[in-house]
């Protein structure tokens, strides 16, 4: 949808305005009822959430498109985000770093590098570095939300409404009349997709998945984005699929499986330990009487 959007008269700035403007309208009621979660985040935490997954994040990502293909961003950004979350989750959330999880992270990293033809570094550019930075920004959003136990809907609303308040005034002053030149059909389609589905529903669903699965496992699933993009690109845009990209996708898929397996094994171990503690009879200390 992003590729289709920029093929019309819409720009990335227009798409960002639709994304955060529509999402803010849908979620402003959450902020009205619950506020900005200052008790959990503080002003710096609120700004960090908006920066790492809101309008500043989109602008940094868009800047990378000037130096590297957007298709590479679709692989590097979510792939490295999953890698960063695995490492940061171990550091800040005390998540277990099992052998299977380490192997999964390495497989995702290798698959992402192969998918974008970066293993030899001959195709590397400044844009790829920016995509890696945005992956770290997205990962920081995940860690902040999980560290503060902020509900998924509340976090999504903070990002959407905060981004609208910070980005839309600048956009209207700089590009205000530009979007009106686009066909109403294109605006409506992108408003639904970018605003309702991506800006609101997708961010909420992703954040909610990290509550259920844990930060690393939830983030690992996003590494499947290039696989889905490859399939849909071939099906709907007529793009060709090379054999090496299929192998790269297989590596990424293996990495996601190993990460989920490690998370499941870790959860099973914790449940076993809790059950053992509950069923073990309490041992009262015994001692000899001094009498």
In short:
The protein has 291 residues and is an all-alpha fold. The protein has helices at residues 2-6, 12-34, 38-53, 55-64, 70-92, 99-115, 126-148, 152-175, 184-213, 215-220, 225-236, 243-279. It is built from 12 helices and no strands.
Shape: globular
Distance between the termini: 84 Å
Number of discrete helical segments: 12
Pattern of helices and strands: HHHHHHHHHHHH
Structural class: mainly alpha
Give Rg in angstroms.
22 Å
User: Number of domains in the coordinates?
Assistant: 1
Mean pLDDT: 84
Number of strands: 0
Assembly state of the chains shown: single chain
Strand proportion, as a percent range, falls in under 5%
Q: What does this protein structure show overall?
A:
With 291 residues, the chain is mostly helical. The chain has one domain (1-270). The chain contains 12 helices and no strands. It has helices spanning 2-6, 12-34, 38-53, 55-64, 70-92, 99-115, 126-148, 152-175, 184-213, 215-220, 225-236, 243-279. The radius of gyration is 22 Å and the shape is globular. The mean pLDDT is 84.
Compile the SSE list and pairings.
Elements: H1 2-6, H2 12-34, H3 38-53, H4 55-64, H5 70-92, H6 99-115, H7 126-148, H8 152-175, H9 184-213, H10 215-220, H11 225-236, H12 243-279
Keywords:
291 residues; mainly alpha; 12 helices; 78% helix
């Amino acid at each position: 949808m992003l590729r289709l959007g920029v093929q019309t008269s819409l720009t990335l700035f227009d798409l960002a305005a639709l994304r955060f403007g529509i999402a803010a309208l849908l979620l402003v009621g959450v902020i009205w009822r619950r506020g900005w979660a200052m008790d959990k985040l503080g002003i710096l935490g609120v700004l960090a959430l908006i920066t790492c997954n809101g309008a500043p994040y989109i602008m940094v990502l868009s800047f990378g498109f000037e130096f590297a293909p957007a298709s590479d961003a679709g692989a590097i950004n979510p792939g490295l985000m999953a890698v960063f979350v695995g490492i940061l989750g171990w550091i800040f959330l005390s998540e277990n770093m099992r052998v299977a999880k380490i192997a999964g992270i390495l497989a995702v990293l290798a698959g992402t590098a192969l998918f974008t033809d970066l293993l030899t570094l001959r195709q590397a550019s400044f844009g790829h570095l920016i995509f890696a930075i945005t992956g770290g920004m997205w990962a920081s959003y995940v860690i902040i939300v999980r560290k503060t136990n902020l509900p998924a809907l509340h976090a999504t609303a903070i990002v959407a409404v905060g981004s609208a308040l910070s980005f839309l005034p600048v956009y209207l002053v700089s590009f205000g009349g530009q979007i009106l030149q686009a066909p109403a059909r294109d605006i409506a389609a992108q408003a639904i997709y970018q605003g309702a589905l991506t800006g609101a529903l997708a961010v909420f669903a992703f954040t909610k998945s990290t509550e259920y699965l844990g930060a690393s496992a939830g983030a690992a699933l996003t590494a499947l984005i290039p696989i889905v993009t490859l399939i849909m690109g071939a099906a709907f845009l007529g793009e060709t699929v090379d054999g090496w990209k299929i192998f790269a996708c297989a590596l990424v898929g293996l990495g996601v499986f190993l990460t989920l397996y490690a998370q499941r094994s870790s959860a099973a171990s914790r449940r076993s330990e809790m059950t053992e503690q509950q069923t073990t009879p309490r041992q009262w200390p015994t001692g000899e009487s001094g009498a």
